[in-house]
C-alpha cells in the first residue's frame, strides 16, 4: 500500500499499490466527506419505502388507508420527481454554482421528511416523497459534479467511490432503523440526516472550475489553495483551467441540444445512457424499494427484516471491495463480473419463485432467496452500481459535460421510475419468476453491450479518453470530471 501524507496535517491516506502517489490533502478528504453526506441522505431516501410501506399499509398503525396502488405511487413518485430534479440540476449548477445548488436542497430535504413524518393523509406522504425526489434528482447531478471538480485525478478511483459508500450506509441505516421504527418515526430520522450535511457544506468552498467560468480568477486561486494546501503550487492547475475555459469560449456558441446531437458527442453520450439504462433495468431499485415485501412473498424461512439488514450490509461492504479493485482490475472487468453475477442470481431467484408458484415444496431451500439477493447486490455494487456514474465523468467531453450529465441523470431517473412503478404490476401479470427472469435477460444484454461498446478508461488521462472516443484532443483540466454517486443505484 502507498501511504500519502501531508506534514502539516499529519493525516495519512492509503491507496492501492498501483495507484500513483499524490498529495491527497485533508481538505480534499473533507470536501469528499461533506459531499458524501448528501449521498447518505439520497441512499436513505431511496431505501425508505422498503421498510416503511410494511407499517404504512397496516391499518392498526396508520390512521389513513394506503392501498396497494397508492403504495406503488409512494415508491414510484420519488424517481419521477427525481427526473424533474435532474433536468433542473444542469442549469442550476451552471448559474448558481455547485456549492450553492447543494446548499439550496438541504432545507427542502428536511421539509420533505417532516411532511411525511407528520402526515395525516396520503396526500402529505406523496407531497413529501415528491419534494424528496426532486432534491434527490438535483443531488444526483450536483454532488458528483462538485466532487469531480475538486478531487485530484490520482485519487479519483478511491475518493471518487466515497459517495457510493455513504449512499450504501444510508440504505443500511434505513433498513436497520426500519426494523424498529414505524414509517413516521423513520421519516423523523430521515429529517435529521441533512443537518450535518448542511453545516459542513458551509465549510467547503465553491469549485475552482466554476469560479473560472465566471471570470473570478482570484477566487478560483483561493479555492485551489484551500483544496491543495497552502504549500502547494496551484498556478499550473489554475492555468490549465483558464486555458480550458478560453478554449470553450473561442468555439462558436451553439444551441446545447444541437451540440449534444453532433456525431462526435453522440457516441460518448449514448454509451453513458446505455450504462444508465442497464443499471436500472437490472432491477436494482425494484429490489431496494420492495426488499421486505419480496422476502415475505418468497416465504423465506429467515425473518424478512433480518434478510433486509443482511442485504444492506452486503451492499455497504461491496463498495469497499470495489474501491480496492477498481484501480487494479479496471472498469470493464468489474462490469463483466457484475453482469454475470446478476444474471446467474436473477435466474436462480426466478426459478425459486416459479417453483413456489407451482406449489412445489421449497421449504428445504428457504435460504435460497437470501443467498441470491446477497450475491446479486454484491455483483451490482461492484460494477453496475458506481461505474456508470464514474464513467459518465470520464467519457463525456468537457464542453457538453453539464448538459449531457443532466440528460443522463434525467434518463437514469426515468428508468428508475419505470422499474419501481411497474414492478408490482409486473409481478401481478407475469409473476415474481417472470419479473426476475426478465431482469436477468436485460443483464445478459448488458454484458454484450459492455464487451462491444464500453471503452476501458483505467489509468487514462481525459485527453487519451477523448482522443479514443472522438478522434481529437482538447486541453482541459484533469480534475474536471464527474464522480459517482451512489447509490443507486
TrEMBL record:
Its main location: membrane. GO terms for molecular function: sugar transmembrane transporter activity. GO terms for cellular component: plasma membrane. Keywords: Cell membrane, Glycoprotein, Membrane, Transmembrane, Transmembrane helix, Transport. The keyword Transmembrane applies. Residues 31-458 form the Major facilitator superfamily (MFS) profile domain. It is a multi-pass membrane protein. SUPFAM superfamilies: MFS general substrate transporter. The chain crosses the membrane at residues 29-50, 70-90, 102-124, 130-147, 159-180, 186-204, 269-290, 302-326, 333-354, 366-391, 403-423, 435-454. CDD domains: MFS_GLUT6_8_Class3_like. It comes from the Eukaryota. It is found in: Cell membrane. Belongs to the major facilitator superfamily. Sugar transporter (TC 2.A.1.1) family. Trehalose transporter subfamily. This is Facilitated trehalose transporter Tret1 isoform X2. The lineage of its organism: Eukaryota, Metazoa, Ecdysozoa, Arthropoda, Hexapoda. The gene is 101891733.
